[in-house]
Amino acid sequence: MKAVLMSGLGGIEFLHIAEHPDPVMKEDELLVRIRATALNRADLLQRRGKHPPPKGVPDILGLEMAGEVASVGPACEGWAPGDRVCALLPGGGYAEKVSIPAGLAMRIPEPLSFEQAAAIPEVFLTAYQNLFNVARLAPGQTVLIHAGGSGVGTAAIQLVREAGGISLVTAGSTEKIARCAALGAIAGWNYQDGPFAPWVAEQTGGRGVDIVLDFVGAPYFEQNLEALAVDGRMVVIGTLGGAEVAKFSLRTLMSKRLQVTGAGLRSMDTARKIALTRAFSEFALPRFANGRLVPIVDTVFDWREVGDAHLQMESNVNVGKIVLRVTG
Ligand SMILES: NC(=O)c1ccc[n+]([C@@H]2O[C@H](COP(=O)([O-])OP(=O)(O)OC[C@H]3O[C@@H](n4cnc5c(N)ncnc54)[C@H](OP(=O)(O)O)[C@@H]3O)[C@@H](O)[C@H]2O)c1
Q1: What angle is formed at CA 242 by the lines to CA 241 and CA 245, rounded to 5 degrees?
Q2: What is the pLDDT of residues 200-219, one digit of tens each?
Q3: CB of residue 232 inside a 6 A radius of ligand 1
Q4: Superfamily, domain 123-262
Q5: Which of 155, 236, 264, 281 has the greatest number of beta carbons closer than 10 A?
Q6: Ligand 1 pocket check for 263: Cβ under 6 Å
Q7: Cα–Cα distance for residue pair 187/181, rounded to 1 Å
Q8: Is 41 in the pocket of ligand 1 (CB under 6 A)?
Q9: Does ligand 1 come within 6 angstroms of the Cβ of 215?
Q10: CATH architecture, range 2-120+266-325
């Protein structure tokens, strides 16, 4: 098969399409002909050698894909060649073929294209896991979502809305905030205009939010704790602005009974990923089918333009996902 390979670690000049051995399918796996894959921030870090794949995972980039089942392992039930599927991957998405445990496959709802379906797994499963399983979102609760226009942000806004919650967002432009509002956010703060914590206090009548989904990390840490209500939960999903918090008092956690926790999808074992995929599919696939949930695709590139796609993500201009169409 062909795959995007790296001839070195660093800039986009190291990315090129070349021949690679086909994946070997196990008995409980589906071999999938990939039609589309999507970018993640982790790909940019892996390209630079800062986020190596977990042990045993191929070093081909790509944490998700959509395609057609090409062959079905003898221990798999309910699947047939030609079925349209999308799935989370530990790696290997920037390729023509991948072999996946059947339990990770999600049937693509009828109205969606491969490009739209490739935009679902990583960001929607991340948002679902952290909102529902980690932060225990309940109807009526308020969630502050940073980087609201990001892939994970745009997924989270929709899931909060569908769960009967209320979302506030921050983002770096009024255009991004308008897009977030169209997806269901009740208000947004442009972080270029100053600190967000006073705005959150104003929006919540001084109470604070129940949950913070944070992608920014250290520069937001103190304000995030300030913005949380009593019994609030914060999930650190990314550290786009830095990971080292210089100084912080544990007393803040005690006085408001706060919980601060971290997220990591890639390192989760397969059994947990399968359980998450099953729960998410039950909640979300009917909603993708009837249009209540929408994969947000910013741009579709041919995979020969993978370098341009990476540069676009690095420039922070996207709202939603950047997708690669895998052509023959
Ligand atoms: N832990 C996990 O399991 C997991 C899974 C998936 C993703 N993630 C992480 O989640 C984050 C979002 O991923 P994504 O794929 O959704 O990203 P994305 O679509 O590329 O969007 C990221 C956005 O974050 C904003 N941003 C970047 N640097 C910032 C900074 N220093 N301060 C404030 N905002 C900043 C930018 O929007 P503005 O214009 O608003 O600045 C940018 O467009 C990444 O850190 C990614 O690594 C983690």
Answers
A1: 125
A2: 999 999 999 999 999 999 99
A3: no
A4: NAD(P)-binding Rossmann-like Domain (3.40.50.720)
A5: 155
A6: yes
A7: 7
A8: yes
A9: yes
A10: Alpha-Beta Complex (3.90)
